[in-house]
## 1
Amino acid sequence: MKNIENQKEDSGISGHDEADITMDNDEEIENDSDGNLTPEEQLQQSITKADENWDKYLRAVAELENVRKRAVRDVEKARKYAIESFAKELLVVIDSFEMATNSEDIELKDLISGNKSTLQLLQSILEQFNVKTIDPHGEPFNAEYHEAMSMEVSEKLEPGTVITVYQKGYLLSDRLLRPARVVVSKE
């Protein structure tokens, strides 16, 4: 018993764990001292315990494999259907364009008005999905968000200011989708 207590002190085991170890070790000592188990019975017990542990191991491996497969399926579904809600919102824009193209008696001012309304609808859908417009007219040039297409001399604006925006840029949740294509002023 002194040897067991020394092992417990060396391992840092105390409290409740100590009682469990002492009880387990006492049972082993009792079994060994009584001599109730023959070597064959001890071998059989060891084989049974090994079989139980092997079964637990196989079940754990199978469960881990199932979790891995489930995770792969979930990622694949997320990738495949990630834009589902975005696509549903865009259907409204498509419906609006279809109504405009199917109209036989349409005047130019009505077509322009309908296009403006459809553009506003599309922009609101983009904002709903964290797509922000970059329209840097009159702002200082920022190479991170703007692409300079050319430079022009300007007496009114400071050098490095955006004079004209050829094409607006877009951000998706602060990630650049497309830089704004601009003309920048120079001295």
## 2
Amino acid sequence: MTADLQTIAGSHTSELTPVARVSICLERIAERNDIIRAMIFVDADAALREAHRLEAELAAGRSRGPLHGVPIAVKDVIDVGGWPTTGGSRLFEGRIASEDAPIVSALREQGAIIIGKTNLHELTAGGHANPWFGKVVNPLAKDRGTGGTSSGSAAAVAAGFCEAALGTDTGGSNRSTAAATGLYGLKPTNGTIDTTGILPTAPSFDTVGPIAKSLELARLVHFAMTGRAAPERERISPSGITIGLCPDLHAAPLDAAVDEAHDAWLRDARNKGARITTLSFPQAEQVAKAGFTILAHEFAASYGDLITAKPESVGEAVHAFVETGLAIDDPAYHAALAFRAETQGAFLKLLRSVDVLAAPVAPGLAPRLLDETTMVGSDHVPYGPAGGTFRRWANFFGVPALAMPLPIAGDLPAAIQLSTLPLSENRLFAVADALGPKETD
């Protein structure tokens, strides 16, 4: 980065013009994307043209709101008119979106600038070693990945290639990647955000949400995607908040670094006046199994025929996953859906007994780039598959969940996820603000 750019980048970005903000991001992409591999498509000319247009609006006295001039990248399963949507795969090679997905149109209406498309696990189901676009490198440590299928979206924000990014979360992909990069990542209430113009993974679980460095920017982007301005920020005192812990939902060991970060956060919450209670949900193991059944079956239904017709266009990991899904018959799938309906009420009753449910996002810190495992004590544990117990319950029950970074010694961050009742995203952001680390510019 040049000295001049360093000076600009050190400023509070909201004080910069749209052209300066986009120019900073584009220069960082040019300098580092060959190493990070977060972006797989960038239209610099289009982004700069939009920045100049929005700058002229400001000069004429028109502001579209707090997202006016904010550069945002989108996961390459989301349509942007005139751009390719590859799903990180050759299965859709040559596909050009005819129009913006509604969420992209909604962001543009509020002044956001779409700067490019981000890398991902192939078709959101392959491993971290994308056979066509490469592994995404964690900007915080070159020997680490970002975990989860929204890998490029989190890396793009952490590297400063954009100010916020959109990812999809079907089993935890926004939360696991945010946790690995020290960011905020939201899985909204199922059905809250329009998924038209987005390649599916498993429609029963699919959601789309923001990844951002600040809680407030994540909130603004989330509500912008609804097509409405963000509601007034809710302010609550941590005193009197009841935090629920449910170890059943993540019945797996945690690394000491994660465990200690959570303990420190809970001590701080108690000191602020919060109450903490432990909850039981004995159906959690069945939730994990039924969730996998639904996800794999729906993925195979979406892509099985396409992959059979063009088997050379996807990698081995996608082939293996679609074969797993095809082996799940309709009775097993419908039994999993029925179990979901049967247990929904019990889970929501548990959630209503507290103000917020707190849980680990992942068993350890950011995964190794070598094999996408994380250390839990002296053991190497798969980071991505941990979503089955650590994260997918939120998709299964349709509740909002937010990954929030926690302060920790060392270069790699820890995180915790908070969840509240459906359709209570503004409350969720308020709880995170009340109980989270103090944000600095």
